[in-house]
Amino acid sequence: MLPKSHKKRDSSLTYRNNKVINKFLKETTYLLSGKIFFREKALFRLKKQQ
Fold first, then answer.
1. Which candidate, 17, 16, 36, places its Cα nearest to that of 28?
2. Can you say whether the dihedral through the CA atoms of 33, 34, 39, 43 is positive or negative?
3. pLDDT given at position 3
4. Does pTM top 0.70 for this prediction?
5. Where is 40: in which H helix or E strand?
6. Which residues neighbour 2 within 8 Å (Cβ) at sequence distance 6 or greater?
7. Which of 6, 10, 40, 48 has the smallest C-beta neighbourhood within 10 Å, fewest atoms?
């Protein structure tokens, strides 16, 4: 079994990592939705021209 102090440090490290990962995921999701939006917009514009 691990000592308590080690466990505590580990959990705070995990917490910090989770915050970074969440931020990264949010930004990635935002970028992806932006890309999809622009692609849909471009397709819509092409359909209108035809």
1. 36
2. positive
3. 59
4. no
5. helix 4-49
6. 10
7. 48
